[in-house]
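Long-time lurker, first post. I've been practising inverse folding by hand and with some scripts of my own, and I keep getting stuck on stretches where the structure tokens seem ambiguous. Below is the full token string for one chain I'm working on. Before anyone asks, I'm not after the true native sequence, just a reasonable design that respects the backbone. If someone could post their per-position residues I'd love to compare against what I wrote down in my notebook.
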């Protein structure tokens, strides 16, 4: 995925707004604000999320237009059906990449409690980058990225969340979108071509399937590179600017349930990711994405390299993200 990282230069949130969001995130919590509490309902399994990631990685790099990509799409659709979601929509189309390549794409959209007007959207991208262009070995830069973290981890965590939600229904509707063609972007000039990334979410935003004016999600949460070793998640700049309420809701919930060491309440950088186009479409969406260094806002060392494999997936990182998002959803009324 991209990643375009802009310099850190934004105003700090107003304290009153942050406090209000922190307060609202704890409403409905049957266990109070105890740091020992993990989830209100359900039980997020990091082992299960890990296996969902491994199943994707077994197909190899999931680059649009390849057999591995098509096979993984079939797996994701059938697995969400097996989990028991209430609806599945497969949105197929074509997009043109920055180099002129026409890519067949497949956005996979599903949901539970489809009759509920109040909805929250969870999203991740499932494709992988065609080149390991950040690898230290020039020969390996010709290879496609395997994408255990960058492509697999967000999807795996959402699948495990969906499994929990089907078994212990929340009070709201929850939708899940696996976006395609996020990672087929131009890395030669980050500041000039942000729209060359996230082609699947841009395509989806033109149609907004399955929403109408009456059931648009109140907010969204994007999961991207959430499985890195000892991962830390800082506030992403566009999330803070365009989706302050869900951003503070997620980070304050993480602190409340004991994952404040993972969700760092300080600024990272600005990332052109799928959440930007969701925000533009009218769904304020926060991005949970690893930036391992507060000062440089750098991505994890496996990013866009041949080392983005299952050896570098951390179940503790998966658990911190999964439990946090589950708590956010179960506390919505």
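-- Answer (accepted) --
I ran through it position by position. Result:
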């Amino acid at each position: 995925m991209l990643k375009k990282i802009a310099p850190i230069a934004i105003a700090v949130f107003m304290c009153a707004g942050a406090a209000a969001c922190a307060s609202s995130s704890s409403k409905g919590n049957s266990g109070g604000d105890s740091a020992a509490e993990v989830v209100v309902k359900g039980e997020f399994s990091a082992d299960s999320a890990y296996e969902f990631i491994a199943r994707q990685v077994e197909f190899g790099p999931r680059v649009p237009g390849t057999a591995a990509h098509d096979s993984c799409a079939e797996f994701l659709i059938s697995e969400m059906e097996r989990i028991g979601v209430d609806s599945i929509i497969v949105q197929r189309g074509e997009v043109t990449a920055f180099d002129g390549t026409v890519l067949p794409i497949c956005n996979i959209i599903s949901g539970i409690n489809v009759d509920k007007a109040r909805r929250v959207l969870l999203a991740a991208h499932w494709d992988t980058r065609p080149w390991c262009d950040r690898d230290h070995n020039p020969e390996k830069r010709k290879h496609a990225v395997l994408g255990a973290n960058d492509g697999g981890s967000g999807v795996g965590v959402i699948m495990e969340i969906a499994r929990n939600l089907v078994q212990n229904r929340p009070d709201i509707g929850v939708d899940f979108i696996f976006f395609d063609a996020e990672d087929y972007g131009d890395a030669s000039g980050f500041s000039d071509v942000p729209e060359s990334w996230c082609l699947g979410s841009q395509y989806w935003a033109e149609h907004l399937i399955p929403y109408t004016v009456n059931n648009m999600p109140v907010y969204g949460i994007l999961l991207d590179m959430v499985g890195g070793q000892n991962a830390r998640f800082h506030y992403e700049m566009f999330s803070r600017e365009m989706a302050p309420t869900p951003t503070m809701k997620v980070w304050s919930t993480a602190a409340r349930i004991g994952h404040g060491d993972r969700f760092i309440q300080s600024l990272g950088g600005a990332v052109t990711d799928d959440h930007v186009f969701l925000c533009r479409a009218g769904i304020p969406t926060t991005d949970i994405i690893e930036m391992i260094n507060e000062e440089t806002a750098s991505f994890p060392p496996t990013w866009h390299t041949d080392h983005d494999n299952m050896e570098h997936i951390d179940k503790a990182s998966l658990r911190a993200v999964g439990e946090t998002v589950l708590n956010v959803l179960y506390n919505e009324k």
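A couple of notes from the structure itself: The chain has one domain: 5-9+42-240+262-320. The first helix runs from residue 15 to 25. Happy to go over any region you disagree with.
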